[in-house]
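Structure catalogue
Derive tokens from sequence
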Amino acid sequence: MQRVKILAFLKFILLFLVAIGCGYLFFKGYYPYAILLFIVALFLFYNWFSQQLWMYQQLFDFSEATKYHDFTRNYAVRNKKSLEGKLFTAFNQINQEFKNIHSDKEIQNQYLNKVINMLDSGIVFYQLESGKVIWINDAFKNLFKTPHLGNLKGLQKRHPDLYEKTIALKIGKQQIETADSSKGKIKLLIQTSEFETKEGVFRIVHYQNINEAIDETEAKAYHKLLRVLTHEIMNSIAPISSLADTMHGHLLSIENRPELEDVKVGVRTIKKRSEGLLQFSKSYRMLNKIDQPNLSEVPILQLLENVNQLLEPVMLRQEIEFDVIVKNTKMLLHIDANLIEQVLINLLLNAIEAVKGVEHPRIILSAVELEDKIQLKIQDNGVGISPELQEQIFTPFFTTKKTGSGIGLTLTKQIMLVHKGNVFVQSEEGKGSSFTLNFVK
């Protein structure tokens, strides 16, 4: 840098001396020499001015490139000791430093995106005032079928209920909400955090699907409850049923006596009711006997054809239009065929019940292969299920039928859980219902 200062000073002195010499020759009357020296002075001034102008232009170009984050240019350094060489060397060093910072930032962004996209929970990061979405992860896109979200208000069109719940979230508090998703109606644990920068206030919202955790906890609780209940009921009722059966046999062997008729009726009633309670207990013991399914590769087409052959006569008798749709006939499921057949039969019988009295009753049984799962779906155009009942239909002992035991849908859900899958319902009163069985590939 010292050498550059000396050269600049010498150039200034030389120009100054030439100007003085030009003036001296002019006043002495040596006009030709004065003109010649004046031309030299102009040349030196033009050279110095052009160099300065060129330097300012380089600085301006570099500042513009920096402004627009363009650090791709490389400045050729011919002489490292010259002013130009030192300037270009500094430019190259700054560009390289910014490239390194940008590269590190890009690596961090890619790392962050990879980590966030590996999460099973949905995440949305947006600016509070404008609603502009900075990014959303893959889990959110897949869960709510939202491939792109430029502004949070865009969520209002696809999922208005979820949008309202997101807007109403309180900072730092967890909320459990029900929402529609690609997996049907699910339970979500939602929470949000907020931070502020010079660009505004930003929020990160976390949507965790807790359906599976709740299902697992409920299943364990139901199993324990049912094990205790059935054990106690059967231990108490079995002796009564046996004793009633013995007494009934003794009474039948006694001669017909009018005073014993009431006793016979009473004992017969006790016997029948005891047998009914025992059968009731045995049916619920089934829930605890499906923990170890006998899995094998089963062609879906064969599975659906078996169900179709079994229920087709019922459909024809009740004049129900029954369609079986399989887009890929080579699809396979790793399942216990007997258990899944039972699930399909239960759901189809419920659908048959739902379309009774409906004009042009129709039931569709379909199989679809998606990227990460296979779906079996039973759709009907029946009476539908109210939102309140949809929350309870998979609960043990709950039924809307006069003669139902409340085990069918509970058993269906338990069978799907032991297959590492799940069952979801979508329904609208007066328009029908759709039960979807999800199997992970």
Q: What stands out?
A: The longest strand covers residues 184-197.
